[in-house]
Structures are given as C-alpha cells and as structure tokens.
TrEMBL record:
PANTHER family: ENDOPLASMIC RETICULUM METALLOPEPTIDASE 1 (PTHR12147:SF22), METALLOPEPTIDASE M28 FAMILY MEMBER (PTHR12147). Its main location: endoplasmic reticulum. This is FXNA-like protease. It holds the Pfam family Peptidase_M28. One of its GO terms (biological process) is proteolysis. Keywords: Endoplasmic reticulum, Glycoprotein, Hydrolase, Membrane, Metal-binding, Metalloprotease, Protease, Transmembrane, Transmembrane helix, Zinc. It is a multi-pass membrane protein. The keyword Protease applies. It is found in: Endoplasmic reticulum membrane. Residues 180-338 form the Peptidase M28 domain.
Amino acid sequence: MNDPDKPEPLPRTRRLAATHNYGYTGVPTFEFDDERAEKPWQRVVGSLTKRGAHLNNPIRSVPSTLLVVVLGLYLLLGYLTQLVEDAMPSVILDKEVAVDDASKFSEEAALKYLARIVGDEPRVSGTPYHLNQTKDLKIMLDDIAKNAQQKVHTDWQIATGDYFHQSSSSFYNVYENASNIVALLEGESGFLSNGSLGSSILVNCHYDSVPFALGASDNAVFCAIMAESLNRLSRSKQKLKHNILFLFNGAEENGLQASHAFLQHPWARGAVAVINLDAAGMNGKPTIFQVTDPRVLQAYHRSAPRPNAQGMAEFIFSNGIIPSDTDFRIWRDFGNIQGNFSYKIIDQYIKRDGGAKVTGARGGFAFNRFLLAVNVFKFRREIK
C-alpha cells in the first residue's frame, strides 16, 4: 500500500537530467563534440586568429609538431651562431710568409714562441722558475732584435714601488723588484733631441701566471702574438709613424704590480696610447672594450672590416659584476694615457697534450686585429 506522505520516484529520464544538472563528470554532452572533432593544431590556429576576450584564455594543448619545429629552429640558430663565433682564419706556415712581409702572421712561428714562454711550470711572480722564464724571454727578444731591419731596443726593468688600489675593498699594494721585459720598435717619432722617447704606442701583455695553471691562454698566447708581431714589423722596410713599446710585464696576477712599475721607466713617458691584451675564459673572438677615447673607437670602427665590441663586457667590468681586473686600471688611473683600450681574448684555439704541452694555436685573427689597431694609431692625426 502506497504511503500518501511519501513522494513518488522520478522517472528514469528525469533522474538522468537531474544528475546532469548537478554536473557529474564523465557524462557525455554535446557541447564538446566540436572540440573533439578538431585537430590540436586547428585549435591553436583558431584561437590565435580569433578576436575577442578568448585571447586571455589559456590554450589547453600545444601540438607536438609545433614544439619540434620551434626546437629545431632554435637549435639551427644556435648552430649558425656558433659557426660565426668560431670562424677563424686558416693557419699560415712560417715558410709561406716572406722575410720582409709585415702584413701576414705565421701561427707556426707564434706557436714556437708560445711553447717557449709557457714552459713546464706555472710562472708565478717571485719564484725561481719565473726568473728563469724572464731570462729566456729577454734572450728571445734579443734574438729578434738582431735579425730586425728596423731599430729594436730591449730592456729588462726591475722596479720597486707602491700604489693605492681603490675598489670595493681598497688596499695599498706594495711590491719589490717587479720585473718587466720591454722591446722598443723605433718608428718615425724616434727619440727627441733631449733624449726622451717620442710618441709611442704601448702594447701590453703579462707572462706570469697563477700558481695552479700554466697560463697558456691567460696570457702567454698574447705574449707569443706580440713576439711574432715584433718579429714581423721589425723586418718591414717601411717605418711606422709612431714607436711601438712591447711590454711583457711579469706581475699582473698579483695586483697589477708590474704595469704600475713600468710607469717608472723612462720610455713610459712617451706612450700616448695603450693596447692592453688580456684573456678570460676559453671561448669567443677577440673583443674590444674599456675604451677611454671615443676617437679611437670611431677610428677602429671605420677601419675594421668586422669590428667586434661588446657593450655588455664594458658594463660587466665597469660595474664589478665579475670580480676581475686588468692592467687597464693602471693605465687609466695612474698613466693618464688618452687612447686606452683593451682586447679581451676568449679562445685562441689552444690545444694541449695531456694538459701540459701546447700542441696547437691560432692567433692570426688576434694578430690581424692587433695590426689593425696599430695602423689605426698610425694614420689617426688625433693621436699625437
């Protein structure tokens, strides 16, 4: 017998409708049929081409094909960028360069200088091995001077001094018997009547190293490039407009001491411009930064076929983001030299045999930039 107070049960169809109205999941509805019929890429394209507030709605899925294409383009762009970054001139053998040809650079000859400078142990300033390598470097430059067509003077400077190193943690830097080897390639400016040196371009590298590395890239490779550059330029029949001072400073890693010591040398008073050569890391092309005279940068830009400069490098070093410093600070703060700029080299294609012996290097690109810089100073009237 039916209870009059008990409500009658709903029909089955109405129960399903009520269930759907409560939003149970898994119940098929017609509102999503069109979306299921579309391909994933069609939904992406349709969402991007429509106008309206739907643009703020998230895309539910991205097709795998599109991801593969984007990833492929990204990898291709990275590969092409690396090809451009690693593009270096072919190696020139010593026999391929004429004796009096000052326009070409022999990597084979520079490699011999590099192996000789690097030696077998770290060249830490103040150690017996550093002294031994300093003597050998002086002999090497004297041999170049003997075979030169132009006048080349060499000198071994030993100096003592101090200076105030102003930085985030300032200190007094005191040094004793800091060692420098200097080679002077005499140009048209020569020596003045009073015996002082005429206008000169100072080219700087350092041959010392940190205690835990041989320092082939930082910075023996640039010393080798400078030695071969001196060898080539000194055999030219034509004099350069300015003298060139090749400074192989022996104490850069311990607080830029040798560059400050060189300011006591009589030849330092003739320097009107500085090309500072240093290294960091093991990848990339030579880049110019830390320019104190915009006229030099303009001349470099007009003269270089492919000028390479990085504002980011300037920003990083000037703001102390990387705790590193170069001899640039000495020339700027204490030398008062107007045409001061740095080449920072990353990767001279230095190869080692077992981490000890240097077996290969490409320095032609750096030499071409260095020779170009010399020619910039040679022809610019602003540099006096």
